[in-house]
């Protein structure tokens, strides 16, 4: 499923990944390059399988590990209220 950030979430790409700011709480999140790739893939309309494919293609990670990481990141972003 594609991902969308809430209207109160600002993003900024850095040399080390992406920073998210939850403007409601003032909390910052720093996404490393692998999490940035997952989020970018999902924001562009890809699903979790496509995000896992992107991780396997770009980083030295096995498919099962990529799937677990994508699922965990998406769950955490949604549970935190940053994403829908």
What features would you describe in this structure?
The protein has 84 residues and is α+β, with helices and mostly antiparallel strands. It has one domain (9-79): Arc Repressor Mutant, subunit A, CATH 1.10.10. Helices cover 46% and strands 20% of the residues. The chain has three helices and three strands, in the order βββααα. A hairpin with a 2-residue loop joins strand 1 (9-14) and strand 2. Helix 1 (33-43) packs antiparallel against helix 2 and helix 2 (48-58) crosses helix 3 (63-79). The radius of gyration is 12 Å and the shape is globular. It starts with 8 loop residues before the first strand and ends in a 5-residue tail after the last helix. Pfam families: PqqD. This is Lasso peptide biosynthesis PqqD family chaperone.
Model regions low in confidence, pLDDT < 50 over at least 5 residues: none
Form type? globular
* Assembly classification: single chain
- How many structural domains does the protein architecture include? 1
Order of helices and strands: EEEHHH
Keyphrases for this structure?
Lasso peptide biosynthesis PqqD family chaperone; PQQD; 84 residues; alpha+beta; three-stranded antiparallel β-sheet; PqqD_sf; Arc Repressor Mutant, subunit A; 3 strands
